[in-house]
């Protein structure tokens, strides 16, 4: 993947991009939990602003969907970096756009915090496919997803 300095540099760029530069990620409160290229993870805390059902006090489905979409993009970015090398990617971060996104909501979104994991199933030259999951602090699976992304 490159020298330790290159790896640290690209990790700093990824942290900054996913946690600071993308405003929507800040709204949700997404933080990188792991930059493992085979299974990166994002984490966020439950907050009143993220509730979708005030009676049941559960996470909004749109927050679940958006988080799984973001972790899918993160998984592709890391897989692309691993494939191309950190030095090349530091100069040109891959553009990633969602083509298709499917979410299966399995349980109500209850928990103190949530962790989303993405795993690249196929990384092609222009299209990538990712499987994702969201679990709560008790490690109960809240939702799963699969998505196709264009890489350009």
Automatic annotation (TrEMBL):
<dbReference type="GO" id="GO:0047617">
    <property type="term" value="F:fatty acyl-CoA hydrolase activity"/>
</dbReference>
<dbReference type="InterPro" id="IPR006683">
    <property type="entry name" value="Thioestr_dom"/>
</dbReference>
<dbReference type="Pfam" id="PF03061">
    <property type="entry name" value="4HBT"/>
</dbReference>
<keyword id="KW-0378">Hydrolase</keyword>
<dbReference type="InterPro" id="IPR003736">
    <property type="entry name" value="PAAI_dom"/>
</dbReference>
<feature type="domain" description="Thioesterase">
    <location>
        <begin position="58"/>
        <end position="141"/>
    </location>
</feature>
<protein>
    <recommendedName>
        <fullName>Medium/long-chain acyl-CoA thioesterase YigI</fullName>
        <ecNumber>3.1.2.20</ecNumber>
    </recommendedName>
</protein>
<comment type="similarity">
    <text>Belongs to the YigI thioesterase family.</text>
</comment>
<dbReference type="InterPro" id="IPR029069">
    <property type="entry name" value="HotDog_dom_sf"/>
</dbReference>
């Amino acid at each position: 993947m490159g020298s330790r300095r290159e790896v640290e540099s690209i990790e700093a760029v990824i942290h900054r991009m996913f946690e600071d530069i993308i405003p929507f990620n800040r709204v949700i409160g997404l933080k990188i939990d792991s930059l493992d290229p085979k299974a990166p993870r994002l984490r966020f805390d439950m907050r009143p602003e993220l509730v979708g059902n005030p009676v049941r006090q559960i996470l909004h489905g749109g927050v679940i969907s958006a988080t799984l979409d973001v972790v899918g993009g993160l998984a592709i970015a890391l897989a692309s970096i691993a494939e191309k090398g950190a030095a090349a990617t530091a100069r040109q971060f891959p553009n990633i756009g969602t083509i298709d996104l499917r979410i299966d909501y399995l349980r109500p979104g209850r928990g103190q915090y949530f962790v989303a994991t993405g795993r690249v199933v196929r990384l092609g030259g222009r299209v990538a496919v990712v499987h994702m999951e969201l679990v709560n602090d008790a490690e109960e699976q809240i939702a799963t997803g699969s998505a196709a992304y264009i890489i350009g």
